[in-house]
Amino acid sequence: MKQALTILGATGSIGVSTLDVVARHQDRYEVFALTAHRNIVRLAEQCRVHRPKVAVVATAHQVDELVTLLRQQGQTAYPDILWGKEGLVQVSVADDVHAVMAAIVGAAGLEPTLKAVESGKKVLLANKEALVMSGALMMETALRSGAQLLPVDSEHNAVFQCWPRVGAGVEKILLTASGGPFLHWSLEALSEVTPEQACRHPRWAMGRKISVDSATMMNKGLELIEACWLFDVPATQVEILIHPQSLVHSLVGYQDGSLLAQMGHTDMRIPIAHALAYPERHGSGVPLLDLASTEPLQFMKLDRLRFPAVRLAEEAMCSGGGAPIVLNAANEVAVAAFLDGRLRFDQITSVVERTLNEVIRGTCKDLESIAEVDQAARAQAGRQVGGYAP
């Protein structure tokens, strides 16, 4: 029996890679639903190739845009087209769906991801922000519903592959980081960074928001919080390790002195294929790494002065409550302002830290209370951005 998939965020890099893996195993998977926020042209092409039963767009206007594009392609049979948050939730909980790829970037992916977990689906988690914002709620919901939550981020998928199946004995999780495009820049030069430079990652091809997060190392801060929830460890048990080659995707250290690492090419089809097929394995379209021809591997300690975002994430995780929500919201606002030319690159983490100091976090036990803290943090972060000269 084929697994029916909903892909939330189908037109982004994770969605595109997921469809590539799915196309290689048409005997195992079928596409139930594809969703997109802005790239309706790509969504129309994906609908032509993969024939989903349902497509979801952001606005009612985009419904007409998608229909027009499908007609121009000569299609006579269209998928059902839904729009808005309600549409995202509907395709996340549909009875026909076996697995949901949660690849919508940012807070926008929280509700459909949580609803998929609530309905007991196999959820392939590529949206780190959803777990950062609702860690306790999502893990409790998964335990209650019996949902299978599988990490797709390359680092967490690597940890998952190295994690003990029985017993304990784990001493430390080491999340690797390339260091981004500014690893060797002077601190003074960071004030002159342009959005184009920040989005030019040396190893991975990613969207603009996550590329900026990689450059500030906020992505590692968010991944640290995510790792704490996924693997039920305190922040003190997670270490960020700079590894510029990005071939070792993360490691697990054991009390007996063993370090287990997962290695592979910098291609997201590897963790996607692993999560799709788990507990089995099948081809991803990526060849094995040829160790004899790889460049020498380097590992370095994190420079906390250069990358203060990691400290902010650690403090937010240790504070608990709504602090991680504030961290994520303020970062999204600050990154958007930087990409719009309203904030300098080196001011992003300053906005986040000031917002963390200003917003009352509270205890967040449901979507409504999470949304309240998120909105308050975004408003405060917006005020902080307004206080800086572009």
Which structural class fits the helix and strand makeup? Answer: alpha/beta
Global morphology = globular
Q: What fraction of the residues are assigned to beta strands by DSSP? A: 15-25%
Query: What is the CATH top level name of the largest domain?
Result: Mainly Alpha
Portion of residues within helices? 40-55%
Distance linking N and C termini: 56 Å
The SSE string, one letter per element, is EHEHEHEHEHEHEHEHHHEEEHEHHHH
What is the CATH superfamily classification of the largest domain? Answer: RNA polymerase sigma factor, region 2, helix turn helix motif
| Strand order, largest beta sheet | 4-3-2-1-5-6-7
Write the layout of secondary structure elements.
Elements (H helix, E strand, L loop, with lengths): L2 E6 L4 H11 L5 E7 L4 H11 L3 E4 L2 H13 L7 E4 H10 L5 E4 L7 H9 L3 E4 L2 H18 L2 E4 L2 H9 L7 E8 L17 H4 L9 H9 L1 H14 L6 E5 L5 E7 L4 E5 L5 H9 L22 E2 L6 H12 L3 H17 L8 H11 L8 H20 L4
Parallel strand pairs: 1-2, 1-5, 2-3, 3-4, 5-6, 6-7, 8-9
Antiparallel strand pairs: 8-10, 9-12, 10-11
Helix pairs in contact: 2-3, 4-5, 5-6, 6-10, 6-13, 9-13, 10-12, 12-13, 12-14, 13-14, 13-15, 14-15
Task: Walk me through what this model shows.
With 390 residues, the protein is of the alpha/beta class. The protein folds into two domains: 149 residues, NAD(P)-binding Rossmann-like Domain (Rossmann fold); 211 residues, Rna Polymerase Sigma Factor, Chain: A, CATH 1.10.1740. The strands form two sheets. Strands 4-3-2-1-5-6-7 form a seven-stranded parallel sheet, with helices on both faces. A five-stranded mixed sheet has the order 11-10-8-9-12, covered by helices on one side. Strand 5, helix 5 and strand 6 form a beta-alpha-beta unit. Helix 10 packs parallel to helix 12. The longest helix is centred in the last third of the chain and has 20 residues.
